[in-house]
Write a structure and sequence with these properties.
There is one protein chain. By secondary structure, the chain is an all-alpha fold. Helix content is 67%, strand content 0%. The radius of gyration is 17 Å and the shape is elongated.
Length: 63
């Protein structure tokens, strides 16, 4: 039985990629006026804070 694995991305690359998403999210949050972060939506879409809360909820199980 062959149990070899192929590394797709290094730990350093994964960390840099993850931090890039984290930095983009922080810049997006900072760009929103506080009221709009929690209340502004287009049509029936969720607010940015609602989407962000969902991401927080799935982040840990995804890792």
């Amino acid at each position: 039985m062959n149990t070899s694995t192929t590394q797709v991305i290094s730990r350093t690359e994964l960390l840099a990629h993850w931090q890039g998403h984290r930095n983009l999210t922080r810049r997006t949050i900072e760009a929103f006026p506080e009221k709009d972060l929690f209340e502004y939506s287009i049509g029936d879409m969720r607010t940015f804070s609602g989407m962000f809360m969902e991401l927080l909820g799935i982040g840990t199980p995804g890792i």
